[in-house]
Amino acid sequence: MRIVFLCLILSACGEPARDIPYSGRRSAPPLKEPVRAMSASERFGAGPVASKDKSSDSPLVWSVPSGWEELEPTQMRMVNFKVGEEGECYLTILGGDGGGVLGNVNRWREQLGLSEIGESDVAALSTLKVLGRDAYLLDLQGTYTGMGLDPREGWALRGAITTSSQFTLFVKFIGPQALVEREGGAFESFCSSLAFSAAIAASSPGAAAHGAPAAGPAPAPGKGPVVGAKPGSGAGSAPGGGGGFSWDVPAGWTPELGGGMRLVTFRTGAVECYVVILGGTGGGVVGNIQRWVGQLGLEVPSEAEVAAMPLVEVLGVQAPLLEATGDYTGMGDAEATPGVMMLGLPVLISGRAVFLKMLGPEKEVAAQRDSFLAFAASLTLDGDVK
Question: CATH fold of 2-36+229-381, please?
């Protein structure tokens, strides 16, 4: 395995030479607001669902446990409950691996003041069924330190995490230990009640593969999320996580449907290139580069090493360019694939995080490097055509 941070030879204006042939200029319709959440089609690969009221916008249905107060969804919480005076339970869905099961388990453990565990410890966790899939079940106790809260001694966290090729689902219940223990059965009942809405199951042929029930009655729908994302278009039909973007498509690149949180996906030979749009910082520049390098089984670079990477201008922002080759392990992969090269550009603009990523066999990705840089340079926002 090896990692290469390759210095770029840029022109005087700071952009790579634009001598790449293009198959056409494409654009995604604009959004009035930054991307705040995923639509149902982004989460589960389904087509847009027509609806007349908020509850029918939800891709999921569920049963509300007795005594739980259902609150309005927020930016990251698709389902949100208040339990007792201090307890809260909520459901979050992220595209792709959502930071990985192990990473999220250890993040939750850190919030309770507990030490990290390893992959073998995660594999030994109990499971329960969520959307027909096995979900890892966590029961943690300690001193809870959450965002904006003073440390809470004697608190507990009960959580469930399940993954698919399209999304990662998290259910988290936090509160005083006695409350969490008392409501443990209700927590598991809520998790078990989750099901895909009838509209999602009908509109997505692959819904069953993602855990949707093939048949049978569904529980009454709860309140649906307020979704800010609208369908974008990179090739006339690709759903995306954000609009207002346009780009030039290099010759030989074939656009495909976006998936998860992808604005657009391209393929050329065995190489895949895609753009992801997230609200806010999306985990930050350094955090995402470190995560990408980790996917290749390589030593994670320090913040200083990330700062020393060559910069490329994308959407008017200087972004560090990652070029690395290693043994790649993606979401759901049982074994690593050797000799995979990755090109990555994390870009933070006002209210959004834009990630460009290319993956494939080393020789093929190296041959597409100039096209990748030209594609990145061609990206524009809100009609600001270069």
Answer: Protein Transport Mog1p; Chain A (3.40.1000)
CB distance 322 to 345 below 8 Å: yes
Closest CA to 321 of 355, 349, 351: 355
The pTM for the full model equals 0.46
| Strand, helix or coil for residue 288 | helix
> What pLDDT, in 10s, does the model give residues 270-284?
999 999 887 777 778
Check the CA dihedral 180-181-186-190 and report its sign: positive
Nearest partner of 339 among 317, 365, 369, 319, judged by Cα: 365
- Using one digit for the tens of pLDDT, what is the confidence trace for 35-53? 333 333 333 333 332 333 3
Quick one: fold of 49-210? Protein Transport Mog1p; Chain A (3.40.1000)
Domain assignments of the chain as residue spans, ordered by start: 2-36+229-381, 49-210
345: its two tokens: 């550009």
CB atoms within 10 A of CB 300: 14
Classify 183 in phi/psi space as left (phi over 0), alpha (psi -120 to 50) or beta: alpha
User: What is the separation of C-alpha 368 from the centre of its chain, rounded to a whole number of angstroms?
Assistant: 25
